Automatic annotation (TrEMBL):
CDD domains: dNK (cd01673). This is Deoxyadenosine kinase. GO terms for molecular function: ATP binding; deoxynucleoside kinase activity. Residues 9-201 form the Deoxynucleoside kinase domain. The keyword Kinase applies. It holds the Pfam family dNK. ATP binds at G13, P14, I15, G16, V17, G18, K19, T20, S21, R139, I140, R141, K142, R143. Keywords: ATP-binding, Kinase, Nucleotide-binding, Transferase. The active site is at D87. It comes from Candidatus Tenderia electrophaga. GO terms for cellular component: cytoplasm. InterPro entries: DCK/DGK, Deoxyribonucleoside_kinase, DNK_dom, P-loop_NTPase.
Length: 218
């Protein structure tokens, strides 16, 4: 199969859905630069999961400053290698801010956001991964990161609902919505190749990829 990248690809979805792992694999497949969210670099994140109210603002402001730097890197990238894969969409910062900050904190966050005047390049394709909360919790526990041990089902459900609202209205780029609950896009060759075929078909609008998992016993 001849692979042609659609250009600047963004993989998004809630915590535990597998967006970073898929982004890594896509970047390897297309031989392109990989831009990661960098959650591990946020010194406030572990505090946030232990004390969401106390650490929400510092966590969000750190991510916002980090995002401003990443947007600058995107815009200053090598003009001869314009293809990139990222595991975050700039809109996610406001999504998390609205979810975690109180009214006064949100006003401050919005002031800083406007001051930074973030103008991220428009993706050529957004891949939105979906999975139920129970699946997300299982995957989070399986990867066993210390700073994620305090994530609970209630927070994840609010996050899933926020992502659903975001992408229900999203029309800034071609969108491929993927049901990732039953498939393995990281180690499963057939699942991954089926996704690549679907990606090749998307050039505009909203599309869906809802495959059944491959049963190798048949």
């Amino acid at each position: 199969m001849t692979l042609e990248s659609p250009g600047y690809i963004v993989v998004e979805g809630p915590i535990g859905v597998g967006k970073t792992s898929l982004a890594r694999r896509l970047a390897q497949t297309f031989g392109t630069e990989l831009l990661l969210e960098g959650a591990d670099e946020n010194p406030f994140l572990q505090r946030f999961y232990k004390d969401p109210k106390g650490a929400a603002l510092s966590t969000q402001l750190f991510f916002l400053m980090q995002r401003a730097q990443q947007v600058q890197e995107l815009r200053q990238g090598d003009m001869f290698r314009p293809v990139r894969v990222a595991d975050f969409l700039i809109e996610k910062d406001r999504l998390f801010a609205q979810l975690t900050l109180d009214d006064d904190e949100l006003k401050l966050y919005q002031q800083v956001y406007r001051h930074l005047a973030l103008d991220a390049p428009r993706p050529d394709l957004v891949i939105y991964l979906q999975a139920p909360v129970a699946v997300l919790l299982e995957r989070i526990r399986k990867r066993n990161r210390d700073y994620e041990l305090h994530i609970d089902a209630g927070y994840l459900q609010r996050l899933v609902d926020a992502y659903t609202r975001l992408f229900h209205q999203y029309n800034d780029a071609p969108l491929l919505i993927v049901n990732a609950a039953e498939i393995n896009l990281v180690e499963g060759e057939m699942d991954y190749n089926a996704l690549l075929e679907r990606v090749a078909e998307v050039d505009s609008g909203r599309h869906y990829f809802n495959p059944l998992p491959f049963d190798l016993s048949k």
